[in-house]
Amino acid sequence: MLAVAPLGAAPGAVLTAMEGALQAAFRLPVRRLPALDEPARAFAPQRGQWSSVAFLEALLGRVPPGAVRLLGVTERDLCVPVLSFVYGQAQLGGKVAVVSLARLRPEFHGLKAAPDVLARRAGTEAVHELGHTFGLVHCLDRSCPMSLSIDLVDLDGKTATPCVACATLLDESREMQRTRARTEGDRP
Ligand SMILES: [Zn+2]
Ligand SMILES: [Zn+2]
Q1: When you count CB atoms within 10 A of the terminal residue's CB, does the N or C end of the chain come out lower?
Q2: CA 125-120-98 angle, 5° bins
Q3: Which listed CATH number (3.40.390.10, 3.40.50.300, 3.30.230.10, 2.60.120.10) goes with 2-137?
């Protein structure tokens, strides 16, 4: 099971779209958790943005029993020290990832709000970040959700469906995890 949790408020329709994209891409059931508190110390006043690493740390302790991954969703504009912003961040091969809706909103860029555009971008970005937690790295296929997005033109050129190569890697990664779980379970 994959878990999705808003940190603070996030629109239900967007969360639903993200959950649908995740379920289709990873072929796992998805459960929405009650909203978590935002990590207050994530705010970086000198930048007016929020630290995505602090969000990941806050999520780490909140992975519910039975969930293989936890995706946090925030309206805050996230950043890391070396980049002016990030759409999201994941623990590569880890259990948690976060997606920011802030810059996925057309209105952030002075355009008219478009809930369907926001929902599509958020779904693609959710698959991208959780893909990293399953060990996927950036893909060169520009239509694959695992390709790198520098800007919204890149993001809007992607679909939420992993390309054949990434889907194959995903299957292998999940098979390895299942084998490991079985092996560990067999120990006396
Ligand atoms: Zn990435
Ligand atoms: Zn790919």
Answers
A1: C
A2: 25
A3: 3.40.390.10
C-alpha 83 – ligand 1 centre gap (Å):
13
Q: Which ligand is nearest to the CA of 162?
A: 2
Q: For residues 85 and 140, what is the distance between their CA atoms, to the nearest angstrom? A: 22
129 is catalytic: yes
Distance of alpha carbon 185 from alpha carbon 76, whole angstroms? 40
- CA–centroid distance, residue 185 to ligand 1 (Å): 32
CA distances from 66 to 95, 143, 155, 176 (A): 12, 32, 31, 18
**Which residues are CB-neighbours of 164 under 8 A, at least 6 positions away?**
none
Tens of pLDDT, residue by residue over 22-78, are: 999 999 999 999 999 999 899 999 999 999 999 999 999 999 999 999 999 999 999
* Distance of CA 88 from the midpoint of ligand 1 (Å): 8
Q: Which residue is catalytic, options 19, 38, 75, 129?
A: 129
Q: Which ligand is nearest to the CA of 133?
A: 1
Each residue's pLDDT tens digit, 157-174: 999 999 999 999 999 988
